[in-house]
Amino acid sequence: MTSNPIHPLAGDALMPPERPIRAEPVDFVVPAGGTGNFCQAIDKEVFSLRAIVFGTGSLVALSLGVGHLAWLDADGLSLTDTLLTALVSATLFWSVLSLLTAILGFRSKHETQVRLLMKRVPEPDGSGLVSSRSVALLVPIRNEPVASVEERLVVMIADLDSAAQTRQFDLFVLSDSDQFSNLVDEAAMVARLRGGFGAGAVSVYYRHRAEQTDFKAGNIRDWVECWGGAYEIMVPLDADSLMSAEAITTLCDTLLDYPSIAIAQSWPQISGAQTVAARAEAFGSFVYGSLLARGYARWAGATANYWGHNAAIRVSAFASHGIAPSGFLSHDSVEAFALRRAGWGTMLIPERLESYEEAPRDLSGFLDRDARWCLGNLQHARLIGVSGAPLLARFNLLHGLVSYIAAPVWLAIFAAWLTLGSGQAATALHALGGLVLLAGVYLCLLAPKLMGVGLAFADPVLRSALGGARSVVLGGLFDVFHSLAYAPIWMVQRSGMVVASLVHFMRRGSGHPPIWRSQRGSSHGLGWQALARRHGLETFFGLSLVAGMATGDISLWALPVAFSWSLAVPLAWLSAVDLSKTRLWHWLWQVPQPALGEMVRPTSVCEGGSSLSS
Hints:
By secondary structure, this protein is of the alpha/beta class. The protein is built from 21 helices and ten strands. It is globular, with a radius of gyration of 25 Å. 50% of the residues are buried. Mean pLDDT is 83; it is low at 1-6, 112-132, 515-522 and 602-614.
């Protein structure tokens, strides 16, 4: 490795002896070269469940499409009406799929379905078993606030030390920082970590790369190539990750017990949420996000996605079949796709482990992060058709792609619906059929939230953890309002992201990613003028709708969207309000923070440096 002369701890001076392992990027042009579909037994168990979920979703979306066609038939059908209905049905399928996934999670709330499925896998012949002591914790960082990173590492190391582990964990801080002040702070942090715990369960190592190729993906790939041969399991962590010893060992034990699985992914909860945007995200993740996670884990089986952190990975499988080619931004999904294509399983563990991450503090932070994710997910289009991959692995990539493409499609559908504001179509809009159709759409969008709130209200333990019955009900109501207020803004912003990504691909090609931008700014820090520039298009759209409704050219059914767009700038500002400094803190969007999470101050690492995750 090349040393960096300006760094106080340059190069590999604080690393163990190298143990190289062959690790080359996957070539998706040639066959996968795996040793077979290890997880075929698991997939057979969930095949019927997938057929029910996808079959029912298709039928419901088709039925809503038929209702939409009947609604338009009041003014006579045209080719445009038919095409519009096809788009409505296609986009509604994904909303219906989320609803069915939440229902499945609701029905299995008292089951550990993943464990039940795993027990049905035939016993292995002993090859590929994970040894009990070789686990590496990887913490890639780039210009992060070092004090915040250190706090999390201290908590995790102390918890591992106190848990009477039978394993020896090696923690690697893998730096891609290029700011001198960060390098100095990192050197001091590593010295404190290495001197503060002695000969405990965790040894601390540090490396700084002079050539920062491919950001986080390249950082981990370089570590695998040079030191991966000494370890059976690696646990990638983001700078804002926090995991308890129990959570880490649960994921490692999954790989130890079931050699067909290459990735065991936890379901991270949101910690340190204080602002309106972050706290709404934390409430949603805890209350109904867990239903979606459990439902998805059931029908995904051994073909779940991977989110790049807070997961345990079998190093040998990753090195042989999971290295993403250079240039992919959302490399984590590509890595899961490559492993599944080679026959390895990727599993989501949906139980609420003490596995945490932080959320951006405001709408601007969420939008900056989403812009990178959009570009990364659109890159996956060229992988969906490669040979040898299971159908569901392709679907996982398609799902990420559609989550962004759906925004401009919905925007086009909304614009087309606005043309129904006069003549016979306007009469049809207020007819019973139109109201039923709109009710069906809103049911698909809001039902998962209502199920999560209902489950939390009915469960005494969850209800108490969320601050009591009043907090659960008011939190659910405010969450619905929050979603309705911000969803139209997201629709416009994501449409812009898709256009910008397509322009980027045409100019530079999908294999040339842009350099990550820092996320230091917040909606308050940007100022009103910057917010007005960023959300000027939504504001213009909203005021135009209001003017159209005032003259009677546009129906009042568009009022919620007009409200959101017209107030996009103040809503963006509101997203950064710190609720901990208001009276709302003790009853709005209460989310339990276990003792491990309380040991770390909420500093929002996601806003403090150049993000490496995708």
